[in-house]
Design brief:
Shape of chain A: globular
Number of strands of chain A: 8
Number of strands of chain B: 10
Order of helices and strands of chain A: HHEHEHEHEHHHHEHEHHEHEH
Helix content of chain A: 40-55%
Strand order of the largest sheet of chain A: 2-1-3-4
Strand order of the largest sheet of chain B: 3-2-1-4-5
Largest sheet of chain B: 5 strands, mixed
Strand content of chain A: 5-15%
Oligomer: heterodimer
Structural class of chain B: alpha/beta
Helix content of chain B: 40-55%
Number of helices of chain B: 8
Structural class of chain A: alpha/beta
Radius of gyration of chain B: 20 Å
Number of helices of chain A: 14
Radius of gyration of chain A: 20 Å
Strand content of chain B: 15-25%
Number of domains of chain B: 2
CATH architecture of the largest domain in chain B: 2-Layer Sandwich
Largest sheet of chain A: 4 strands, parallel
CATH topology of the largest domain in chain B: Nucleotidyltransferase, domain 5
CATH class of the largest domain in chain B: Alpha Beta
Largest interface: A-B, 16 and 21 residues
Distance between the termini of chain A: 44 Å
């Protein structure tokens, strides 16, 4: 029997709201010796953690339901909120279920957070996970394979046994399947955005941050079946790509407000970890080399990723607009997010050159006042519907 | 020929209109204005829509586009939603083609909108969250003073020595009014003072939009308050903004709903064009 849509969403909501990570604790308790490794946005090769028999757990801040008290003491007022709430999660014991934490290269703040984490949580495995800024296989590729090998060795030590190539290939297959399901989900929403509201898609992605990938893939497929069967009314909304929310997450209310205001979000950059690699990673050959090639040559673009060529700036965003049939772009970036806010004018230039309308605002993960955002998104939708050249 | 509906859910009333469009002509078929009075606005929207259909002799599936505006984003049977600025601008040029600005004064806030001859919003400014420049505040004061809403305008116009109240905060303004009553200030002077305070705030908003000349149509629930219109004219003179002329229209209260309905017709044609283009 198919799971009803409301049950799927209720389950995802439960996982999203649980800042004590009970599902992770339950997964660990189900078999002795199980370990869970946290990772921050934007991307880590989760295949390595999975291959080591561990659960990769995405840590995307504390959201708008958690009061940050201790975390604020660690940062100046001009720093974004995600490191504060992540520190708060750690210091209040909410991340005790994690046996380690990966801090990928996003920005200076998150890089420094990896050092702070090493000092604050001496009994945990902590790694700053660097990424290549050169896309030549022989240079950046070799560096990245070396980074992944170091992580693989660390995980092997934690596990007490090596992580074999066959285990890695099996994990690549598991994540290829997950990526396929997510691609189907995004294609479905772009085709019929009224059938798959972004707030539901978002909750599904967040569920994938705490569930084992096999279970998450099943959940996404169940959602697709249930959402397709649901009778929902199509509205005359403007189709937009939302960009800038690749690290600190907007509150759910903000996503709801944008759609309520008359926009259908048909693509975004939420939880890019699940869509970072744009196609299948070959399940044969050297697994680390294949993961490296996928990263270097077939991965998404964000402000945190180095652009090799100036002319490539905004290429991924333009592709999102083109392939999804979007009519405009909404820049929604966290306050004080250096990568997103420094990149924004360059992306806006690219959009202006292609005559793609855009609007821009800032948020924090605990933004509570939605009226101005609703008004801005609503008037933007009106301007597209009434005054665009199409 | 197509039919469209416009439903404007405000904080004080639900306004519903039906239009028939033939070529460039738009014929107004039916209208409803229901005060919310603690009722569910969504149910009221459905009820008003049904009544308007009945008045026009139409069925729901005769309506090609149902457009909402104001707080109507959640109306389930709507085809699309437009924002208040967009719809008041379009409604204003429909009612008064010469209008180049709109002052929309609703139950909870006010806004000034600079528009062009097509009803396109060029710039706008809203009051902040404080309700002192709003219809609800004026209605509350009238109730304290024992004055019926329809008496507010004529009484205000008969004032000889208006006493201005705080234009910043509704709570302070209410305190001002209590003090005035205890000091024996005449009711017309209190009401005129309130109108002048509201007008001064609205003129400031108009100035911020950048408009300097043209006609300004008052829309929203207070559009027919003659006292407010007179005060607005006085404040424009006081501020030496001689290029702007305030005016109202008997149907100003429907401006948002009219704009929604007309934009709905525009969208219906555009969507049809896009469909035909895609099919070709």
């Amino acid at each position: 029997m198919n799971t009803p849509l409301k049950d799927i969403i209720a389950r995802c909501e439960g996982l999203f709201e649980d800042l004590r990570f009970a599902s992770v604790q339950e997964w660990k308790a189900a078999a002795p010796g199980r370990k869970a490794i946290g990772y921050m946005p934007i991307y880590v090769p989760r295949e390595l953690i999975h291959a080591a028999g561990m659960l990769p757990v995405g840590i995307f801040g504390g959201g708008d339901q958690m009061e940050v008290i201790q975390g604020d003491a660690y940062y100046q007022s001009y720093i974004c909120r995600i490191p504060r709430s992540t520190v708060e999660l750690g210091l209040t014991g909410r991340l005790d279920c994690l046996d380690g934490m990966l801090f990928p290269s996003i920005c200076d703040v998150i890089r420094n957070l990896s050092g702070m984490w090493q000092i604050m949580f001496k009994d945990k495995y902590v790694k700053y996970f660097d990424v290549p800024q050169d896309y030549d296989d022989a240079i950046g590729g070799e560096f990245y394979v070396h980074e992944m090998q170091a992580l693989r060795d660390d995980l092997a030590r934690l596990r007490g046994a090596p992580v074999t190539d066959d285990e890695l290939r099996a994990s690549i297959a598991v994540y290829n399947d997950n990526r396929r399901a997510i691609r189907d989900l995004y294609a479905f929403r772009a085709q019929q955005p009224w059938q798959a509201p972004t707030v539901e898609l978002y909750l599904l992605l967040r569920a994938g941050c705490v569930l084992p990938p096999e279970e998450h893939t099943r959940l996404v497929r169940e959602y697709l079946a249930a959402a397709a069967a649901e009778k929902r009314t199509k509205r005359d909304n403007a189709r937009v790509v939302l960009t800038g929310a690749f690290c600190e997450q907007p509150p759910l209310g903000l996503i709801k407000s944008i759609e309520m205001a008359g926009c259908y979000i048909v693509d975004d950059d939420f939880m890019l970890v699940m869509r970072w690699l744009l196609d299948e990673v070959p399940e044969q050959g050297d697994p680390l080399v294949e993961l490296s090639k996928a990263f270097l040559h077939r991965s998404a673009q964000t402000p945190s990723k180095y652009d090799d060529k100036k002319e490539d700036k905004g290429k991924y965003l333009l592709e999102q607009v083109r392939t999804r049939g979007a009519e405009g772009v909404v820049f929604a970036s966290p306050s004080f997010c250096d990568p997103a806010l420094l990149e924004r004018p360059m992306l806006q230039d690219v959009l202006a050159k292609h005559k793609i309308p855009y609007t821009a605002f800032k948020f924090a993960e605990n933004t509570g006042q939605m009226a101005p955002i609703r008004e801005q998104a609503g008037t933007f939708a009106d301007s597209i519907k009434l005054w665009s050249a199409a | 020929m197509i039919h469209t509906a416009g439903i404007d859910i405000g904080s004080g009333a639900v306004k519903t209109v039906l239009f028939r469009h033939e070529g460039d002509r738009s014929l107004w078929l039916a209208r409803r204005c229901e005060r919310i009075r603690r009722r569910d606005p969504m149910q009221l929207a459905q009820q008003s829509f049904n009544e308007a259909l009945e008045e026009a002799g139409l069925a729901a599936n005769d309506i090609e586009y149902i457009a909402t505006t104001g707080e109507g984003e959640n109306v389930k049977f709507a085809t699309g939603h437009f924002y208040s600025m967009t719809t008041h601008a379009r409604g204003a040029v429909h009612l008064a083609p010469e209008a180049r600005a709109v002052v929309d004064v609703g139950a909870l806030n006010g806004r000034a909108i600079w528009i062009d001859g097509r009803g396109k919003v060029l710039s706008y400014k809203m009051t902040s969250q404080c309700a002192s420049g709003s219809g609800q505040f004026l209605e509350n004061i009238a109730r304290y003073l024992g004055v019926a809403v329809e008496e507010i305008g004529p009484l205000s116009e008969s004032s000889k020595n208006p006493e201005k109240v705080s234009s910043i905060c509704a709570v302070l303004a209410e305190t001002d009014v209590i003090n005035m009553v205890s000091r024996g200030i005449a009711t017309p002077d209190i009401l005129k003072g309130i109108h002048l305070s509201m007008a001064s705030r609205l003129v400031k908003l108009l100035k911020v939009t950048g408009i300097t000349k043209g006609k300004v149509l008052i829309t929203g629930g207070l559009a027919l308050d003659t006292g407010l219109l007179a005060a607005l004219r006085e404040e424009l003179v006081n501020e030496k903004i001689t290029g702007l002329e305030a005016m109202n229209h008997p149907d100003s209260i429907y401006a948002g709903a009219i704009g929604a309905s007309l934009w709905g017709a525009f969208r219906h044609h555009r969507l049809k064009e896009l469909q035909q283009r895609a099919a070709a």
